[in-house]
């Protein structure tokens, strides 16, 4: 039977049930397809399982039509491989590719939801959250809240997403074993930090860094170094840094390229952290539209300075009195910003989160 395929079609959905012999496993390992001419077993274009995995003897698959053959009558072939690595015979069907432009819509995820065991119906599940805070891509990294897990035991977690046209996808299900006990999330703090140039001396063996406020006690810390690690050479070098958490585990190193000048005479002083006047900064977290308000107990000659993650000064504003000072953060992207109160050679820094 001839199957017409309009050139505007994006995905062709098919259901496959391939006989692989009495001794074969019932699960499928992978699938492939090709047009007209057989390229050889394993050399076709990959089939995609609708549910994201080949795990059953009967699978619904998708064929991408981004590169259809020329308009006219063609034969589409499909074959699958079982759990033992044996390929089944090719299954063919006649497809009539109609002329016209191939138009692929922009596919983005509008929202997502999840549920445990029983499907409450489209739109009635618990909302999924995008890792980057916004559903705006066809492929999204999502997270779900685990504060209200089901009872300990084996459960089925169902997830689905909705596109920008309000159409819900099929349900993707996975079996989850919920273990007994309370789910707890440890408080994350920085315990120590270190830095070095070029060659890693090993965790804990580099030059220690100091917390700008004199104490490592937060998840986000403004840190400073002292002397340049030795040996050091003039020119472009890679300066590396890493931090350690409360459990003694070191994080991955972060490196930046610096240009070191060894001809400078004398030393470069590093301001010492000192006790600042009583400071109130809020709200924290805040939004760019809401901004922050700063109030000091003594503000003679003080300034407030806001930096970005690269240390660039975004705002430098005088604080001439103890009256509250409101600072607008319009145009600031979501993230964490070091906010410093500077009085002469004394500095006090605190991270402010903008959502």
Structure description:
The protein is mostly beta strands. It has four domains: 96 residues, Immunoglobulin-like (Sandwich), CATH 2.60.40; 70 residues; 71 residues; 76 residues, Immunoglobulin-like (Sandwich). Helix content is 0%, strand content 44%. It is built from no helices and 27 strands. It is elongated. It starts with a strand and ends with a strand. The N terminus is likely disordered.
Strand order of the largest sheet: 1-8-7-3-4
Task: Summarize model confidence as the mean pLDDT.
Answer: 75
Report on the biggest sheet: 5 strands, mixed
Class derived from helix and strand content: mainly beta
In DSSP terms, counting alpha (H) and pi (I) runs of 4 or more, how many helices?
A: 0
Proportion of helical residues: under 10%
Order of helices and strands: EEEEEEEEEEEEEEEEEEEEEEEEEEE
Spans with pLDDT under 50 lasting ≥5 residues?
1-25, 269-276
Distance between the termini: 57 Å
CATH architecture field of the largest domain: Sandwich
CATH class of the largest domain: Mainly Beta
Please report the total strand number as a whole number: 27
Shape: elongated
CATH topology grouping of the largest domain: Immunoglobulin-like
Radius of gyration: 30 Å
